[in-house]
Amino acid sequence: MTQQEIIDRLENITWLMAEVENTYVKHELEEITEALKTEFNYSDTYDQEVKEVLNYDETINNLNNIKIR
Fold it and tell me: CA dist 22 to 12, 16, 17, 63, Å?
């Protein structure tokens, strides 16, 4: 399941809980959804920073071009 699928499913469940007026569960799900969005954004940012620091694309290209005799 992708990050977006997780968020979408949580938002659908949150909507359902609002429809049946279960405010406690709705509130908890909203908090979980926001926490996941924050974590996913942090994780994506961290991954991008690591790629930039390591010059990832060039490094992978160079590794792919290594020829062992």
Answer: 14, 9, 5, 55
